[in-house]
Amino acid sequence: MSVHITESDKTRLKHLVSEGVRVKQEVDSLNEGLKETVKAISEELDLKPSLLNKAIRIAYKGDLRVHTDELEDIEMILSAIGMRV
Asked: Residue 1 pLDDT more than 70?
């Protein structure tokens, strides 16, 4: 594949890559801060960090209904096979 890249294209690509790296570093930093906050609050409230992370993910995606539907299906299956729920 042969692509002709002009000086203007090179400038735009350099800017894109530079900004992309900066954004990725910022996201990594924010994720690390969130991880530390979740850990601290989970310890304070005696909750599993994974539970808080799941709550955050569900709130972010706005898909609580999907999870409640899945849980209802699981409860139905377990009840059908005689397992206590």
From this structure: no
